[in-house]
Amino acid sequence: MEVRSIFKPESHIFKAVTKAGALLNDKKALAGLLVSASSKIEAGGGRIASVKNDIATLIELLKAWIRGEYREVPWSTLLLGTGAVIYFVNPFDAIPDILPAAGLLDDASVIGFVLASAKNDIEKFRSRNTGEAHPGTPD
């Protein structure tokens, strides 16, 4: 997947996805990012209700990948998912998080885009954790 074909190189999300590639090769740093993201979810309360479950799923998928417990995920999903987490954690993205309501709107948009792009991979991971059958796979 060519990230330049999806995002403009000067965009915040392009920069986050570029950093994601390096983090995926440094599992200790990636684990630290996931701790920061989990803390932001907890601190965000109701302000991040629209993205709370989705970003939590991305975090759990990435944690399972780090531990070697889940490898059935394409590199593109790892890259976009890590980029979305970086974008979520960064308080100075396109719309700074200190702005009430609007600050997390862009985070929700980026996470929504990633989830739409990797819907099958995310659902497969979710069904693995809940024991539900994934559409298109045998029970």
Description of the molecule:
The longest helix is centred in the middle third of the chain and has 19 residues, at about 50-65. By secondary structure, this protein is an all-alpha fold. The protein has helices spanning about 10-25, 25-45, 50-65, 75-90, 100-115, 120-130. It is globular. Residues about 1-10 and about 135-139 have low confidence and may be disordered.
Overall SS class: mainly alpha
Global mean pLDDT: 75
Tally the helices. Answer: 6
Low-confidence stretches: 1-9, 133-139
Shape: globular
What is the total number of structural domains? 1
**Beta-strand level of the residues, as a percent range?**
under 5%
Please report the distance between the alpha carbons of the first and last residues.
31 Å
Which key features would you list for this structure?
139 residues; mainly alpha
Q: Outline of this structure?
A:
67% of the residues lie in helices and 0% in strands. The protein is mainly α and 139 residues long.
Question: Any chance you could write out the topology, listing elements then pairs?
Answer:
Elements (H helix, E strand, L loop, with lengths): L11 H13 L2 H18 L4 H19 L7 H15 L12 H16 L1 H12 L9
Helix pairs in contact: 1-4, 2-3, 2-4, 3-4, 3-5, 4-5
